[in-house]
Amino acid sequence: MPTCLSFFQEWTITPVRRIVHCCAGITKDFISHLPETERRYYGLGPDGEPNGFLVDVGLGKIEGSLPAPTKEQLLEAGRAALQYNHSFGITSWLDPLADESVLATYRQLSERGELTAHVAAFPQVFARKPAEELARVQKLQQEFKGVPNLTISGVKIFADGVAEFPSQTAAMSKPYRSSGKNGELLFDPARFAELAIAADKQGLIVHVHALGDRAVKESLTG
């Protein structure tokens, strides 16, 4: 199991790393054939072998190799989330990255009379094909329209990653002192502007993860 895990980065312990990396196809040979811009998502040891550190896309490759949770597992997770939030007096929240399986879980909880919180769900978009992505969100809005306590009122997009070393994927206007990196902007500014304008016309909130100063500037400009 991971010894350190966030949405953006992960360290895996050695025995698990060997198994998980093998299943996900993360090997020395795999990394050596990646473009230079993509190798930074995978930590390497002195021998060039993966050292267990994964960032952004690298972590996504691990997640993509894992079996999807069952409907029953998602339902139990939803119940646990409701109970946990209610224990702090929280009765409403925004759920970013709510994909169709998560939305279906909220609907199932609602149908059982168990969705005892108000949830604003924001599906993820990438601003690669703005019109198609927003059409998909509209389709989800129609599919889950009328579910008590559930609304799809916005979209979530990532402008960059995080500033922590050794990740340093937050997009900065000046290089990090320790590595000389500038991070990475995860969308094309022109396409993001297209998406933001169209989303606003559809009455959607655009929820942006932007940590680095360049990412913040491009998000606000869009």
What features would you describe in this structure?
By secondary structure, the chain is of the alpha/beta class. The protein folds into two domains: 2-65, no CATH class; 71-160 and 189-221, Alpha-Beta Barrel (TIM Barrel), CATH 3.20.20. The protein has nine helices and nine strands. The strands form three sheets. A four-stranded antiparallel β-sheet has the order 1-2-4-3. The protein has a three-stranded parallel β-sheet with strand order 5-6-7. A two-stranded parallel ribbon has the order 8-9. Strand 5 (92-96), helix 6 (100-111) and strand 6 form a beta-alpha-beta unit. Residues 1-7 have low confidence and may be disordered.
Helices and strands in order:
Layout: E1 2-5, E2 9-12, H1 14-24, H2 28-32, H3 36-39, E3 42-44, E4 50-55, H4 57-65, H5 71-87, E5 92-96, H6 100-111, E6 118-122, H7 130-143, E7 150-152, E8 154-158, H8 189-201, E9 205-209, H9 213-221
Parallel strand pairs: 5-6, 6-7, 8-9
Antiparallel strand pairs: 1-2, 2-4, 3-4
Could you tell me the CATH topology label of the largest domain.
TIM Barrel
User: Distance between the terminal alpha carbons, to the nearest Å?
Assistant: 40 Å
Category from helices, strands and their pairing: alpha/beta
**Which strands sit side by side, in order, in the main sheet?**
1-2-4-3
